[in-house]
């Protein structure tokens, strides 16, 4: 099923199997994704293709400095004909939401989005509206531009299940892009909502041995003790890594988690949740490099 889904999306997005798989993992774990990438690499096309392939409602929100929380959530509008207020839904009422350039809007608007991500409900004028399940936000930010941006604070970054980067296509992939007529493509539905819900339950039921659980905990705790890390990964990161490893094992057709599942997802789950020291930056070390060092120095369980 997942292989069919990836093949379907590949009709409009070339060579991003790994990214598609990881976004599906986040969806199975009820998580949200932060995509840090330069403009023009196909983020909107990818998310729209996923929405079409899974029969999910889709909306794209371009974040700007003047965007207000009401622009996302919706607003109550007075109708003089019946002398009543009627609620007009905002774009966050879709199932798959692309929040483009989230770091270009004010902290107040960012906060309203992240609250909805956490609660999966919207409250306007003391009335609460439950969002349709599945609900997922894929937020993007440009890693290069800093002027006129509002960086997400630590507590809000921690709300994202994983952080990914699509990167530029290689030469062969870019040649294939020239032959695609993306604008004319309407993709068929491969997976319906019921299948997604069933897959979630199956992923949750994947077996994790005691040795793998201890391995996950050792990895995240090591980020808190590292001399070049000012703020280590929270327990939320530990839980996310545990759930993501189960989802990956499920996608690979296994009924149990192996150390390679954990290692494959560790950096994507944790890199945006740690904050390295100025000394680390002076030494030319990034979050990913430090996490790789932690993986290399942490004993891998021999039995699963």
UniProtKB/TrEMBL annotation:
Family per similarity comment: Belongs to the MoxR family.
Membrane spanning residue stretches: none
UniProt keyword Chaperone present: no
Keyword match Calcium: no
Protein name: AAA+ ATPase domain-containing protein
Keywords, ordered alphabetically: ATP-binding, Nucleotide-binding
Positions of the ATPase AAA-3 domain: 32-162
CDD domains, sorted: AAA
Domain ChlI/MoxR AAA lid: 221-293
SUPFAM superfamilies registered for this protein in UniProt: P-loop containing nucleoside triphosphate hydrolases
